[in-house]
Amino acid sequence: MRIFLAAGALVIAHPVVAQDTTTLDDPAEAFEVDLPEDCRIAPRNLQMDFEVLDITCRDVPMVGIYVGNHPSGDGGRVFSTPYRWPATIHVWVVEATTDRPRAERIAASVRPASF
Asked: What is the pTM of this model?
């Protein structure tokens, strides 16, 4: 990241990641996760240009995963992908989880898919 002053305004320039022109049909193909046997990934809602997936374990919410091009929200981790869509993965621990240490381990295991 570079920070510089341009025309009196502070500009933060993030490195540009070369993107493939590929789009994925299944948002879950964009990432990998070490998912315990008693856990599952389910779509929360499908929007026109993004999807939010939930990881639950025995019906207890654990982790949220945004897959799309324009994440919003604080906290968690954000990854870039080489795809045109989804270009971004945002992972966070669900605030209401009853097993925070386990949820944090699962969230930490989420990573961009191997290419």
From this structure: 0.78
The pLDDT tens digits along the chain (115 residues) read 444 343 444 434 444 445 556 888 888 899 999 999 999 999 987 777 899 999 999 999 999 999 999 887 778 999 999 888 999 999 999 999 999 999 999 999 999 998 6
81-85 long-range Cβ contacts below 8 angstroms, 24+ apart: 81/30, 81/112, 81/113, 82/17, 82/18, 82/19, 82/20, 82/22, 82/115, 83/19, 83/20, 83/22, 83/23, 83/24, 83/30, 84/19, 84/20, 84/21, 84/22, 84/23, 85/23, 85/24, 85/49
